[in-house]
Amino acid sequence: MPDTSITRIEAEPGQYGYTFGGREPIAEIKPGTLISLRTLDCFGGKVRSVTDLPSQVCEFPYLNPVTGPLYVDGARPGDTLAVHIVSLTPASPVGISSTFPHFGALTSTSHTPTLQPPLEERVWLYDVDLDRQTVRYQASRSDYTVDLPLEPMLGTVGVAPAASEVRQTIVPDVHGGNLDTPLLGPGSTLYLGVNVPGGLLALGDGHARQGEGEVCGVAVEIAMDAVIVVDVIPGVPTATPRLETDTRLVSLGAARPLEDAFRISQDDLVRHVAQLTGLDLLDAYQLVSQTTEARAGNVVDPQYVMSAGIDKRYLHGAAAYHGAHDQLRAVVRSG
Amino acid sequence: MPDTSITRIEAEPGQYGYTFGGREPIAEIKPGTLISLRTLDCFGGKVRSVTDLPSQVCEFPYLNPVTGPLYVDGARPGDTLAVHIVSLTPASPVGISSTFPHFGALTSTSHTPTLQPPLEERVWLYDVDLDRQTVRYQASRSDYTVDLPLEPMLGTVGVAPAASEVRQTIVPDVHGGNLDTPLLGPGSTLYLGVNVPGGLLALGDGHARQGEGEVCGVAVEIAMDAVIVVDVIPGVPTATPRLETDTRLVSLGAARPLEDAFRISQDDLVRHVAQLTGLDLLDAYQLVSQTTEARAGNVVDPQYVMSAGIDKRYLHGAAAYHGAHDQLRAVVRSG
Amino acid sequence: MPDTSITRIEAEPGQYGYTFGGREPIAEIKPGTLISLRTLDCFGGKVRSVTDLPSQVCEFPYLNPVTGPLYVDGARPGDTLAVHIVSLTPASPVGISSTFPHFGALTSTSHTPTLQPPLEERVWLYDVDLDRQTVRYQASRSDYTVDLPLEPMLGTVGVAPAASEVRQTIVPDVHGGNLDTPLLGPGSTLYLGVNVPGGLLALGDGHARQGEGEVCGVAVEIAMDAVIVVDVIPGVPTATPRLETDTRLVSLGAARPLEDAFRISQDDLVRHVAQLTGLDLLDAYQLVSQTTEARAGNVVDPQYVMSAGIDKRYLHGAAAYHGAHDQLRAVVRSG
Amino acid sequence: MPDTSITRIEAEPGQYGYTFGGREPIAEIKPGTLISLRTLDCFGGKVRSVTDLPSQVCEFPYLNPVTGPLYVDGARPGDTLAVHIVSLTPASPVGISSTFPHFGALTSTSHTPTLQPPLEERVWLYDVDLDRQTVRYQASRSDYTVDLPLEPMLGTVGVAPAASEVRQTIVPDVHGGNLDTPLLGPGSTLYLGVNVPGGLLALGDGHARQGEGEVCGVAVEIAMDAVIVVDVIPGVPTATPRLETDTRLVSLGAARPLEDAFRISQDDLVRHVAQLTGLDLLDAYQLVSQTTEARAGNVVDPQYVMSAGIDKRYLHGAAAYHGAHDQLRAVVRSG
């Protein structure tokens, strides 16, 4: 019987990380154990009012802190880590968003520079109503308000990269990182390939909600109380992050240009479906072509993210990763 | 009271078109009148079995035929055409898909050439069950089958381009064309800017269903009996195609690389939301950032398509194009 | 013996074109005959001083006029047209350049939109000194001047597209068009596939000089007196424009993103070298990899252009297109 | 008087690195001192015959070894390192090239995946003739040979990245890395921004020659005896690598898609020219537009490289980095 008591991980102020890789674990965790932890918002809590401009109160590159890394008992290179998100509860009554000079999809950036001046930097605050499960958009230049559904998610979940690389947490890649997909909320399981002993999982960048593409570059950022449970699938590698919910099997691709993120996600889904169903590669290509959901994660980071998702009903009951998602769901229910 | 009798447009065999622009209208239609017409499948009906390989039975560039163009009474350059899709009924019991040499997102193509040999060309047939509203996927190399929902849509709807251009129907751009978004089904209204007198609307490329991105390049292609109704919004230009359903307001972008299609769709949605709500541009940018759905249309054509959609509830009742969508819905209900 | 008297083509004011395709020929020309004609600058002569802002004095889409089309005797679909540029002489003492709102590589554009305001629109005039073969750059906000070499070229040379398409002259593609490569100067031969009887060649957009990439979107634009001679290579198709000088064999690729333009140009050069030398495809790939020059044409138009060039000395004397370039050079020398 | 005796750096077998960042310096060097060192070929010397296929004899990620890092005395974050290449002499009589599965620009890759099988893996050997300064291309499937000029260069030169990142040596970015530009040969000076104390310079990946774009992914790879001399420009940051020769001032951009590498290089050159000449930004944009050389570095790595170069004659004698290039040249002449 799995141990379903909750283990609390406490990160000390100096323990938050700004990279995947290059850091010592702050704790060791056991597969199958419920883990509770706090994640900071992407500004590290430094933006508290509309006059706290991120470029003034934050210090580059100390953005997008993650909690961790966590050493997962028994995880070895070549394994896969299954990270199930049990619950996400905003740990602040206020979510924050902003424009940020030369960051976002509708502005010139350091990757897509132009000679134009930057957009104005501006901060928006969103009141969170946990009872109604909403966040309130409040325009900055008029009194227009509208309540939006609270749909909590984690923007950044990843492990130490392969090949001794160390990457800023803002970068999404095959090790995970700043994936920024709204699919990564409670009830979903993220699969990440393990590159180093213990995997060295870290997570953060909670969003009270986010549009697909995260076009201005900043979601409704908020500190989050997260409960997760992790499993190790030994001897099964994962080339690019995958994700599973009760109804969807998803592959994620991180790359530029965006069509390459699309290609990576679709190619991986085709190969995964072929492996799970026994379909030959072109038959799987065909099935995926008629059924896939192809949605933007972020289109603002050093690499962009696309997801390719398929309804699990079309897979005749085939279970990804030996049924890891269902087993983790069972852990939660028995907890 | 609008005239809601149905006008039948019959295209003679030689009347199907392979371009937007460069052709004389085959009929004149009146705004507010229900129009019924038949569209051919993208192969022009020439692929009838799994041994009919498109590269052998079809003759380039005679692919993706459209029905039209239709001269819309009163449409003038600078106006917008609102094309409401009332119903789409498969006109064949069998849908067709295929791989096609050097076409699709997971193969090298003429735009993204490599020195590798092409993928195998193969055809799949899908039995349509109108009662159960399904199409049946049947693997070509095993007996794996699965029923998928029938979700009919039109891949290609457009008008004559600006600047005297003539474009193949396979090309999506600001004049519409091969947009290939699953959003373009019954109950949706497509908005297209008018470039020439009468607009010269044409449509075709029915899909029994399609995955987002249309990754293999070919949906479940099928001839379609379509009923549409068209309106003209005088003096209101439309820079890039937009689309509206009962719940969503959507902007479409067509470009390469895919991030530019994303940028175009999001930029247009931001500006549209600003105009409809009175929000200043950065406030609209913020609202869109937290709420947008960003989904792939096709990622296989000479230009790729992304959609940016927002839930109309967040717009405080503001009505796009003076409420054209609701008015066209009313025409249908009174018909 | 070829007829080497010079035939003068005179385009009347109303005869300049803004598209490839969709127009009747203004003259018929014979292969092997020297042809003399005048091309207008890309502004059609309407920008005459630094206060003539293009967005005010020009009318979209009436930009980038071409002289032609010329019906080439004997050219049939499937043939290749060899267009040899004998000489280019500026027909004005002043070249013109400008920034243009939302056009150029270091600004947001209609293809890569942002929410930033456009760059300032500004005009620069360049005095041409034919004796010294220079053009003089004169800063607009200081008295900095510098003389640059006069290196005349044609930005736009093309034929009617395939598949009944009509494209604005600003678009480079497989039919040629706005290629904007500095390689297209006197002494070079451009090879274009013929899509319609007579080919329907048109040319224009003379540049007194241009940087690779044409980063601000506008070269040193100038009306040009051009002498050309054309040949038809029957039964030899050309998939993407190629170019030859006395020392270089070049393939051009037009696409977005820019890596696809690179891929198209390199893929075509590899295949061309394999065909000319008898090398197998991977051997040709290897030879090209170590020797190619890969340079930007324009990175500002609806499609971008890259060139892939190889020194002809590495080809063991193999002659492209049955030696068309040398034969056209001979025509000139005997003229 | 500078110390112009030559300091020899010897890297022990275990001391070669596969990352920028994350490693301790192997030696400390003084600015203004001639440094002699050996670089390995990109295969670490493991490919010795045409039957040594890289995917079999090399172990990922142990490719592209660099010699270093070298701690440069006095270099501090915010400074710029000027790395002048005095001479490059092949340290092997044979250069090596290859195709490599799913690597190169004319094949599908892990970034641009397709369902096609990979190209054949094949090795080519090039005999080096130091007297004639040539390398001999020898086809693998015929007896076609041709001598190509020996044009030695270093593919990979970089420093430790900012923000505690560690990157594989195959990645070009703002810290340098696998830039793969033929401009980086003897007589050129590379400018790199310093991110950590000592800069931590490392270099390798010698090429006997390389085509622009390095289209098959592998140049004529060879171990190299290099002599360099380094200077520190205190208090002058460098945002993206720059390069200077006796005649050219160049900015490099590393990004995907390739147009962003182009934009970064051109944007940086415009700003550099503006700073050096006092021209306002649009005047510099104009001057660069008419004079720039825009050439591909590599179009095969995780990020692509473009160069933007301008003839120094157009800069009225303005000296970049306080004349560092000329001073380093003087060190060499006095050595």
From TrEMBL, chains A, B, C, D:
GO terms assigned for molecular function: hydrolase activity, acting on carbon-nitrogen (but not peptide) bonds, in linear amides
Coiled-coil region list: none
Gene3D superfamilies: Acetamidase/Formamidase-like domains
Pfam families given in the database record: FmdA_AmdA
Name of the protein this chain belongs to: Acetamidase/formamidase family protein
